[in-house]
């Protein structure tokens, strides 16, 4: 990379790939896996969501990913749910049992589990 034009071209190319990936998968479950999240128990939460999606046979429709710091360490483990055309939902102080409930109620039935969200 030798110029800003090359950097801009790379950015535009990657932007298109991200947009395609998001449109293919209507729902993304993102678990904060920075040091604070891992220390608070994010690894089993991530594993539980992966298991729930696999058991439901929804791997083609739902993506479970991890991210770095979300920025609200005091609420870890943090899970963000992104659904096409809807506002992001942030779940806090998650556990594997809470992940099961969020999957059953929110992901499968469309009912946000408000007592686990930031706004509660």
Structure classification:
alpha+beta
Q: State the assembly state of the protein chains.
A: single chain
The description of the largest β-sheet is:
4 strands, mixed
Average pLDDT level? 87
> Number of helix segments?
4
SSE sequence, one letter per element: HEHHEEEH
Q: What is the general shape?
A: globular
Helix proportion range: 40-55%
β-strand percent reads 15-25%
Low-confidence parts: 17-23
Q: What Rg, in angstroms, do the CA atoms define?
A: 16 Å
Query: How far from one another are the termini?
Result: 47 Å
Description:
The chain is of the alpha+beta class. Helix content is 44%, strand content 17%. The chain has 4 helices and 4 strands. A 4-stranded mixed β-sheet has the order 2-1-3-4, with helices on one face. A hairpin with a 5-residue loop joins β3 (79-83) and β4. α3 (42-55) packs across α4 (96-107). It is globular, with a radius of gyration of 16 Å.
Give the helix/strand layout.
Elements: H1 4-24, E1 27-32, H2 35-40, H3 42-55, E2 62-67, E3 79-83, E4 89-91, H4 96-107
Parallel strand pairs: 1-2
Antiparallel strand pairs: 1-3, 3-4
Helix pairs in contact: 3-4
Short key terms for the protein model shown above:
120 residues, alpha+beta, 4-stranded mixed sheet, 4 helices, 4 strands, globular
Q: TL;DR of this structure?
A:
This protein has 120 residues and is α+β, with helices and mostly antiparallel strands. The chain has four helices and four strands.
